[in-house]
Structure formats: structure tokens, C-alpha cells
Amino acid sequence: MAYSSIFVGSIYPPEMLDSIIRENSHVDFAANTFQMGIVEGLTRFYDDFHIITSPVTSKYPISRKLCYGHKKLSLEFSGKSINVVFPGFINLPLIKLVTEFLRIKRNLKNLLKDGDTVYVYALHSPFLLAVYTLRKHISKVCVIIPDLPDYMSHNNGVFRRFMKRINKLIINKCLRSFQYDVLFSRYMEPELPLSGKKWITVEGMYQASILPKYKKEERKIILYSGIISSKYGVFDLIEAFGLINSDDFVLWLCGSCSEAEKNKLNSIKDSRIKYFGMLQKEEVRLLQVRATLLVNPRHSSEEFTKYSFPSKTMEYLASGTSTLMCKLPAIPEEYYEHLYFFDDESIEGYARKIVEICSMDPEMLRVRGEKAREFILKEKNCYSQAKRIFDMVEKVE
Fold it and tell me: If we measure between CA atoms, which residue out of 162, 128, 133 comes closest to residue 145?
């Protein structure tokens, strides 16, 4: 039997990524990595596969780009050339949402054929509404839910709260009309209208890659890669590192950063700390291999940690470098043996644990790191995770 599918999401085609970065826009690398993994896995099961993408960008004038025009591109997955449509949008608050919806709907309608399954990435209203308004022409819809919007913004102004309520009504109405869901965490279930629907949890997937060869340095290199934000505990990590009174320790940071928090970074007077800015995936991977310890300082006390599996967990473990983090609720227990956890989530506790792990036998750290990498490559690869999704959606019972 031949299967056909359309994926609606926010993938950054390589031809566009460099220009988006140069335009001073935020780039959601974690979401992009996961979506590329989903698509790589799903393309093995579908004979005909198309992508409609509308990447996340900073709004104008933070981003210097006001209007994005329609583009037709292609991506290579598993030896297949996949057609990609970027409908474009006007990059202004609210107007972007409307133009995204209208242009995605038009392009989706042009691509749809009888029997198509549509996958939607994230609870993004323009994506969901475009699919919802065409639902009578779609065989099956599966929504992949990495985060709950209620927990992804701390802006609590009156207008913002009103818009969030409207957004939630739209999301829930759309979700009730679709048949399948993929959740990143089991804690999402009570927060979503899943009654009578089929759903599974898939916390992530990893695209296999060849690790760059690099010998570990004598210095103890601590690395954080991701969004530089107080919300994610990064400045707690920086403060904890300041308590480590040794020139043998170095802290490397890379990832996107707001102007306000970039100013905070620039004000830190510690020559052992280096901020690399936003890097391409290959550059980040090289830093991860060079590092002694990879750290995710996100605190487990934050409510949103129940609903969001940090994608950097897989990325960190797949590097083969030891990984230290808080025991977040959304992390399945099968990961525990491959991770190191903070016993105490205070600033002092962070500092003590970093020193403790970096003082361990390097060979022991290497062996445990290799086992962690094997776990990710074998159990969390694109094929095995995508097969679980495909079987839920397409398997005839």
C-alpha cells in the first residue's frame, strides 16, 4: 500500500538559515533539529512526502527582514529529495500570524490529495487553523506537541493574557477535531483534550551523525549550549562557576541571547568564561566533544519542566561527553543511568557537583559517555521513534 503525507512545521531549510541569522533573528535550533529528525524518520515510511515550513523568526524590527516571499526548495532525507514549500509571511506582530495562516492554507490546499495524512508540528494556531479549515479533505491528522503554550511565556500583561485565552480556545477546538497526538511528556495529558483519541509519548529523536575527532583537553571545560536565559538557569550556572576558584576550569556558552541578557554576559568579569554566540550545529557538536562536562542548569522546580523534555538531553548524551542536569519530571527513567544529576539545585550545589564530576577518573567518564551515546543511537534514533508514530497513525487494526 502506498502512503502519502504532508508535514506542516517550522523547519529552517539550509538555504535560508544563514540569511535568517544574518538578519539578527532568533533561531530555534532545538525545534529545527527535532523536526529534521521526525521528517528523516517518516520519509522512510511514506512513498510521497511534502513539507510546508514557516520558520520561527524574531519580529521586525528586531529582525531586519520585514517580508518573506514564497520559495520552493528541497531537502535530502534517506536518499530521497523532498519538496519543501516556504509560503512566506509579513514579519510583524499579529500580522505574521494572519499571513502565515492564509498562505499555509493556500499551499496546503494545492498539495492535498485523497488519502493524505497531515502532520502538524507544535500548537501554533496558524498551522492548526490551516489544517482545521481543510480537514474535510484530509484523511488523518497527527499533531506533534513539544510544548504547552501556557508555560512558554512569562509576559502576563492584560492584553497578553487575553490573547493567550483566545489562542487556547482555538488550539483546543482544532485538537478535538484531529485523531492523533504525539506528546513530549506524559504530564501533558491532563492539560489537553485527548478524550477518545490515540496518542503516544515520544520525548525526542536523534539524527545519527559522525562525531568529530578531538582529544579531550587537560583543562576542565564546562559547556552549556542552548538559549542563554535566566529562565533556563544559565545565569545560575555562571554564578556557580564563579565559586569554583581554579584556573583549570573554563566555562563555554553558545546559543541565542536577547540584547538584555547579552549585556549581562558582557558585564561578567571572568576571563575563564567564553561566549561563542550562535553557532551552526556542526560547530556546537565539536565543542561538545571537546568539553569535559555538558551542563543543563534548568531547575526542576519550574512548572513548565513537567511538560517539556529538553532536546539538548539527547544531543548532549549522543556526543559521548558526560552530562549533568537537574532531575526534571519529563525525563523518562530509562535515561537516569546515563546522566549525572545535581543533588542540590542551589548555586553552591551546582558548583560542588561540577567539581565532583570533573574530579572523577577520566576513563570512567569516557566509558559511561560511550554507553550513553550507544543508548541514544540505538533506542532514540529517527527510524525507531518515527516508526512508533507511523504505526499509531497508519497501522490498520
Answer: 128
Cβ atoms < 10 Å from Cβ of 100: 23
CA distances from 305 to 39, 176, 229, 237, 301 (A): 25, 25, 15, 17, 8
Q: How many CA atoms lie within 13 A of 4 on its CB side?
A: 11
Residue 271 CA: distances (Å) to CA of 252, 268, 292, 304, 354: 11, 9, 18, 33, 19
Confidence at residue 272, expressed as pLDDT on a 0 to 100 scale: 97
Question: pLDDT tens across 35-73, in order?
Answer: 999 999 999 999 999 999 999 999 999 999 999 999 999
* Closest C-alpha to 325, from 187, 215, 222: 222
Residue 397: what pLDDT?
A: 56
List pLDDT tens digits, range 73-126.
999 987 899 999 999 999 999 999 999 999 999 999 999 999 999 999 999 999
pTM for this predicted structure: 0.88
CA 40 – CA 374 distance, rounded (Å): 20
Q: Among 325, 16, 334, which residue's Cα sits nearest to residue 204?
A: 334
Q: How far apart are CA 363 and CA 313, in angstroms?
A: 22
Cα separation, 140 vs 112, whole angstroms: 12
Residue with cell 530521497: 80
Q: Which domains does the chain have, with CATH numbers?
A: 4-207+381-394 (3.40.50.2000), 220-379 (3.40.50.2000)
With CA atoms as reference, report the closest residue to 142 among 130, 152, 126, 128. Answer: 128
Cis peptide before 193 (omega within 30 of 0): no
